[in-house]
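HTH merR-type domain-containing protein
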Amino acid sequence: MTTTPEAATITPSMARQHNLTPGQVAEMFNVNPKTVARWASTGVLPSIRTPGGHRRFREADVVALLNR
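Tokens:
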């Protein structure tokens, strides 16, 4: 059985950082937002969750993946 990484919940300090939506990340990589969600589920791109349960991605993590 494989476990998938769980997304962290946004804390007040994280809220002050620039976080991107799956759609914004998808545009940056020219992929479908479902691909971005799959990257988050498999640990390729760390994600955090809003209090409402929506995924967000730290800009620094996205830039690091872009520069790989």
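The chain has a mean pLDDT of 86.
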